[in-house]
Amino acid sequence: MKILAIESSCDETAAAVVEDGRKVISSVVASQVEEHKLYGGVVPEIASRRHAEAIVPVVKNSLEQAELTLKEIDAIAVTYAPGLIGALLVGVNFAKGLSLSTGLPLVPTHHLRSHIASNYISNPNLKPPFLCLVVSGGHSHIVMVEDYTKMRIIGKTRDDAAGEAFDKAARTMGMPYPGGIALDKVAEDGDPFAFKLPRPTVSGSQYDFSFSGLKTAVINLIHNSAQKGIELNKADVCASFRYAVVDCLKTNFLKAAEDLKVDKLVIAGGVSANRLLRSSLQEECDKHGLAFYMPEKSLCGDNAAMVGSQGYYEFLSGNIASTDLNAFATMSIEL
Ligand code: ATP
Ligand code: MG
Ligand code: FE
């Protein structure tokens, strides 16, 4: 079964053709990041306008690269939540029009479920159940993936997402948006123990995260030093901050796995590209005899291949939308 998938939840306009949820036939991603960089973050109205301009060429391109016509496609999957509402509406309405004109079934797909599904592409043998750490620009969840379309939230952030914390810390150090990627690179040359940063915990829930205190601590460290005319070693600041964030993520994730007696661990979302998160979780899992899976780096950020993968399993479970499908800025991954 071949699915044409469309993604427009944030600042990437993307389309892909995926076969049986696992095989990527084509994948096209048009990123707007260079334009949003000018403003230090995503400007919602600009994002919507760029999606409107890019959606037709991007979808056409994905079909051309797949050497397929719409007649050879079996269903259309589209991201309908969560994300920037004006951005989502572009993809949803385009997919609805395409579904109406071709008669193909329309499969509404949840963006975070798709991030998880990127792992089905990178790890052909991976099957639920497993415990997944979903860490992205807007979310930080520990999710029990009981089946392809059945999920239970075990823990989540009470304030900032991990990606957001990385981006804000990086911005304070003058790195361009999205700074998480640059911060990760600079941290490679630093000492993770150079600065002592807090490990905020959430009272009453041992699996929930809190990153705003940690973010504020590093921002204060940078500002206070600048005021005093002290020049900090940037690599050391990046390394210490990255170590602290990864430590928080790892601690709760591994604790949840132990308590739930799960022996299959998976990571997903933009932050799952983080080098330290990948290497240290791999190390911990090897040490404790746990299976560990991650998406290839090119599938960690937003793309439509992952939508085509999750869309396949949503289709199999009977999740088909009618033509009144709407977009939603927020929606639980549990649905
Ligand atoms: P969401 O998926 O929650 O709706 P989003 O789609 O904007 O949000 P993603 O595209 O999944 O987010 O991920 C982008 C985030 O990942 C950014 O915050 C970015 O800084 C972060 N990120 C990407 N690479 C790395 C890295 N190597 N280390 C740390 N953070 C990273
Ligand atoms: Mg993006
Ligand atoms: Fe995302």
From TrEMBL:
Q: Which residues form the Gcp-like domain?
A: 23-307
- Which species? Ruminococcus intestinalis
The signal peptide here is: none
Q: How is the cofactor bound?
A: Binds 1 Fe(2+) ion per subunit.
Q: Please tell me whether the keyword Acyltransferase is annotated for this protein.
A: yes
Task: List the SUPFAM superfamilies hit by this protein, alphabetically.
Answer: Actin-like ATPase domain
GO molecular function of the protein, one example? tRNA N(6)-L-threonylcarbamoyladenine synthase activity
Q: Which InterPro entries does its entry note?
A: ATPase_NBD, Gcp-like_dom, KAE1/TsaD, TsaD
Catalysis performed (reactions): L-threonylcarbamoyladenylate + adenosine(37) in tRNA = N(6)-L-threonylcarbamoyladenosine(37) in tRNA + AMP + H(+)
Protein name in UniProt? tRNA N6-adenosine threonylcarbamoyltransferase
Q: What does this protein do?
A: Required for the formation of a threonylcarbamoyl group on adenosine at position 37 (t(6)A37) in tRNAs that read codons beginning with adenine. Is involved in the transfer of the threonylcarbamoyl moiety of threonylcarbamoyl-AMP (TC-AMP) to the N6 group of A37, together with TsaE and TsaB. TsaD likely plays a direct catalytic role in this reaction.
